[in-house]
Design a protein that fits this description.
13 helices, 6-stranded mixed beta sheet, binds manganese (II) ion, Creatine Amidinohydrolase, Chain A, domain 1, binds glycine, alpha+beta, Creatine Amidinohydrolase, about 35% helix
């Protein structure tokens, strides 16, 4: 199991501190608990930026950067040890152990946050914080906001750092993908006759959980037949119908890193001829786009190329009619391929790292970035403008790709993907 070293978290904090103006305070809060309904809560998950900088999974925590004359001090606020609360919610690290574990200059109790903050900000002119944080302690810093000349969003700086993954992050992503790979293979092998989408979802998520991962990087999509044409279909409550395809977009979160994989497989072992024709257009497109990935290539170029390839394929099958150039210009593919070619992935499934730089120029691919490549074609069952044999079919194929020095590595390449490979695994 990959574990990020404390020295790496410190390095990230140093990198961030370097980006702050002199005479600054930087504040990063832990995530608050979120209620599901009445007095039941979602399982606690740390704020992604806070986790990236500390690896600390407790709530009621806050990280401060204090920069004076180029020198930076870091402060971590933690919850105090409290026997009664620990009886209900489990052990907390406490101040003493936190000081031992983290390479942080000072550790204080969160109960003293306001008092300490007031002292620590003396002489500081600039404040960096998460303007949108839902943590109620943000209110405490808002009281002091008028003392600062410059107020900046600290999340933008951290998210930019998250664009390039470190070797340990790449290992963590690979571990997450390895579990998701097992789950997709299990789904392919599962006997689907007379079963429901949720039963297949349960197979996948059982594989996640028994490997210490969670199914909440995003909600699994298990969409049979025409349901696949609803892009965010998560009801997963319909029967698996013989002769139809199932689009499975499922990826686990493991040790705070996501995976995001889609496979589209037949209910009854074999693809039908029209399914195969559509599938191979999506697959060819996906393989060609992955083949283009290397440093300095732009994501928009991948998007454009995917649109061209899918348009050509759809003309061949008689789904799009007319002249190629005109269809491209009018973006006619949008009816059948309405989404993007992919997104950054990391601690969040849609990692919120920037796509454009401060001057609004597109950021080209660079070594260490991880992105998904996920072309698709979706033909509604009621779409009379399309040959009947393709109606009600929705296909997406999605892999997670690491940009390397020379090109790229498909981190999810072990999961069966060609028609032959999928049919060979099916029951
Ligand atoms: N599973 C969400 C996505 O593919 O972006
Ligand atoms: Mn995706
Ligand atoms: Mn996905």
């Amino acid at each position: 199991m990959q574990v990020t070293q404390e020295s790496e978290y410190k390095k990230r904090r140093d990198t961030l501190a370097n980006k702050l103006f002199n005479n600054s305070v930087g504040v990063v809060f832990s995530a608050p608990h979120t209620a599901r309904s009445h007095d039941t809560h979602h399982p606690y998950r740390q704020d992604s930026n806070f986790y990236y900088l500390t690896g600390f999974k407790e709530d009621n925590a806050c990280l401060l950067f204090l920069k004076t004359k180029g020198e930076v001090k870091t402060v971590l606020f933690v919850q105090k040890k409290d026997e009664l609360l620990e009886l209900w919610t489990g052990e907390r690290l406490g101040k003493k152990e936190a000081k031992k574990r983290f390479l942080i200059d000072k550790v204080y109790l969160i109960d003293d946050f306001e008092k300490r903050f007031k002292e620590l900000i003396k002489g500081k002119k600039n404040l960096y914080f998460d303007i949108n944080s839902k943590n109620i302690d943000v209110k405490k810093i808002l009281k002091f906001i008028k003392y600062f000349k410059i107020k900046e969003d600290i999340t933008k700086l951290i998210q930019k750092m998250r664009l390039i993954k470190s070797p340990s992050e790449i290992e963590l992503i690979k571990e997450s993908i390895a579990i998701t790979a097992k789950a997709h293979l299990r789904a392919m092998r599962f006997e689907k006759k007379d079963k429901y989408e949720y039963e297949l979802q349960a197979e996948i998520e059982h594989e996640f959980r028994r490997n210490a991962a969670y199914s909440d990087a995003y909600t699994s999509i298990v969409a049979c037949g025409n349901s696949a044409n609803t892009l965010h279909y998560i009801q997963n409550d319909k029967p698996l119908v013989d002769g139809e395809l199932i689009l499975i977009d499922a990826g686990c979160e493991h040790n705070y890193y996501a995976s995001d994989i889609t496979r589209t497989i037949p209910v009854s072992a074999k693809f039908t001829q029209p399914q195969k024709e559509l599938y191979n257009i999506v697959l060819d497109t996906q393989l060609k786009i992955i083949g283009m990935i290397k440093p300095n290539v732009k994501r928009t170029k991948l998007q454009e190329e995917a649109e061209k390839l899918l348009t050509k394929g759809m003309i061949e099958l008689g789904i799009l009619k007319g002249e190629y150039k005109k269809l491209i210009k009018e973006k006619k593919h949008k009816k059948y391929y309405p989404h993007g070619i992919g997104h950054w992935m990391g601690i969040d499934v849609h990692d919120p790292a920037p796509y454009r730089d401060a001057k609004n120029r597109e950021i080209p691919l660079q070594e260490g970035m991880v992105l998904t490549i996920e072309p698709g074609i979706y033909i509604d069952k009621e779409d009379k403008s399309v040959p009947k044999r393709y109606r009600g079919i929705g296909i997406r194929i999605e892999d997670d790709i690491l940009v390397t020095k020379e090109g790229c590595e498909n981190l999810s390449s072990s999961i069966a993907k060609t028609v032959e490979e999928i049919e060979a695994l099916a029951k």
